[in-house]
C-alpha cells in the first residue's frame, strides 16, 4: 500500500479527516473483556470494525501494546485492519529516533514485522536518521514538528537564526527530505497558530494533528489553520474520547457514535 495514495483515497471515499488512535488501556476496558488473554486485540478490533467507515486512518500507539507484552496482538490487529478494511492506512505511532543500522532495524520493525503503512519518527538526529525509513518505497514517514504537549515549547519554539526550530524542521522536511513524496508532519491541535504557519511553509504536505478530544484542541481552529485548498491535508487524531466513550458491553457502538460525531464536527468546518 502506498501510504499517501491510500490516505488521499480514504479522505475521499469516507469523507473523513478523522484518525482514530488505538491506545488500549486494559484498566479502562469493559468488565466483560477483563482477564481475557486476547482482550487488547478484541477491544481494538471491535473499535476498528465499528468505526472503519468513518475514518481516514488508524493510529495504534506501540507503547500501549508493548507495556502489556501484547506486541503479537498489535501484529494481529494491523493484519486485521488490512484484511477486513482494505485501503485504510495504519500509522504506527512509535516516535522512533536513532541513526544508522539501529534506524534500519526500527524501520524493519515498523514496516516488515508490524506491516504498518506509516510510522512516526523524531527528526532531531537529522536526515541520516530518517533515510532508513524513506528507503521503504511507498511507506509514510511522519516527523514530529510542533507537538501538542505544553513542554514541546522547551525546544521546538527556540530561535534558530531567523525562524523557530519547528519552522526549520517543517522547511527541511518539505523542501529537502521529502524527495520521494513519503513525508508528513505532526503538528498539535493545541497550537492552531503554529498549524497555520506550518501549512504556509509546507504547502500540501499531509499533517497528523493530535490534541482534539481529551487534550482540548479546537476543531474549528484546527481546520481553519491546517486544511488545504481542497478541504483535506489533515489526519485529525482522537483516541481516548472515542475509545472510552462507552463503559459497557455496547462500548463499540458508543465509540462509533462518538467517531461519527467527531467526523461530522470536522466536516462542518471543511
From TrEMBL:
Domain of life: Bacteria
Transmembrane segments: none
Annotated Orotidine 5'-phosphate decarboxylase domain residues: 17-255
Family named by the database record: Belongs to the OMP decarboxylase family. Type 2 subfamily.
Entry GO MF terms: orotidine-5'-phosphate decarboxylase activity
PANTHER family the UniProt entry points to: OROTIDINE 5'-PHOSPHATE DECARBOXYLASE
Gene Ontology biological process terms in this record: 'de novo' pyrimidine nucleobase biosynthetic process; 'de novo' UMP biosynthetic process
Name listed for the protein in its UniProt record: Orotidine 5'-phosphate decarboxylase
Record key words, sorted: Decarboxylase, Lyase, Pyrimidine biosynthesis
Catalytic residues in the record: 95 (proton donor)
InterPro entries cross-referenced by the UniProt entry: Aldolase_TIM (IPR013785), OMPdecase_AS (IPR018089), OMPdecase_type-2 (IPR011995), OMPdeCOase_dom (IPR001754), RibuloseP-bd_barrel (IPR011060)
Lyase listed as a keyword: yes
Cleaved signal peptide residues: none
EC assignment: 4.1.1.23
Reactions accelerated catalytically: orotidine 5'-phosphate + H(+) = UMP + CO2
